[in-house]
Design goal:
globular, twelve-stranded antiparallel sheet, alpha+beta, about 200 residues
Length: about 200
């Protein structure tokens, strides 16, 4: 037979539910998500040269404009969205024609295949302090080249501005690092991502 609660037990159960609801309400009020100020935020991807004749190549600096995103500072949660087709080659010291050629190769089917895989996104899954109140190690998932893989990001906050770095391997996402001249000039598998993110007020 089902148990029958006494009036006192019913009253206590009611108070527990009220308190639980209040706690959830307070928690939801504390967790505030802020939009990213895309006009004052930047993400730079650095691809480095390698190979026996690397002196004849050069490193690449890629600007990755943020399409949209938000950050919850209290929950240490972040989500960023990019368009692969929006990536721009910044490489200083090279001609505009060379930048255009490099960008075509980067967005083409042999590298990012931006037409087939237009979305690049990062979503955090966990965060842990890194010995400094302003520094955190953020774990998340990066969507790139149609694949999703875990990424670890080192983040530091300074006056509401978040800066950090992450290193990912191109081959982890099914991308073959570009090679020319029989592989004597190529780019490294490791790619460094640097970011500076400012939130809207």
């Amino acid at each position: 037979m089902p148990s029958i609660l006494t009036p006192k037990q019913l009253l206590m159960t009611g108070w527990i539910r009220v308190l639980a609801g209040a706690v959830l309400l307070v928690a939801s009020g504390m967790a505030q998500s802020h939009r990213i100020d895309t006009a004052h935020s930047s993400v730079t991807v650095r691809v480095y040269k390698a190979g026996l004749l690397s002196a004849f190549g050069h490193d690449h600096e890629i600007a990755a404009p943020i399409n949209s995103g938000d950050v919850d500072p209290a929950a240490h949660r972040v989500e960023l969205h990019f368009g692969a087709g929006d990536l721009q080659v910044q490489d200083p010291g090279v001609s505009d024609a060379d930048r255009k050629t490099i960008r075509q190769t980067m967005l083409g089917p042999d590298v990012l295949d931006a037409t087939r895989y237009p979305e690049i996104a990062f979503r955090s899954t966990a965060a842990a302090p890194a010995g400094d109140p302003a520094r955190w190690i953020v774990h998340g998932e990066l969507t790139l080249h149609g694949q999703v893989h875990p990424v670890v990001v080192d983040v530091r906050e300074d006056g509401g501005v978040y800066q950090g770095t992450a290193v990912v391997k191109q081959t982890s996402f099914g991308i073959k690092p570009v090679k020319v001249a029989g592989g004597t000039v190529r780019v490294k598998d490791d790619v460094r991502i640097e970011f500076k993110i400012q939130l809207t007020h």
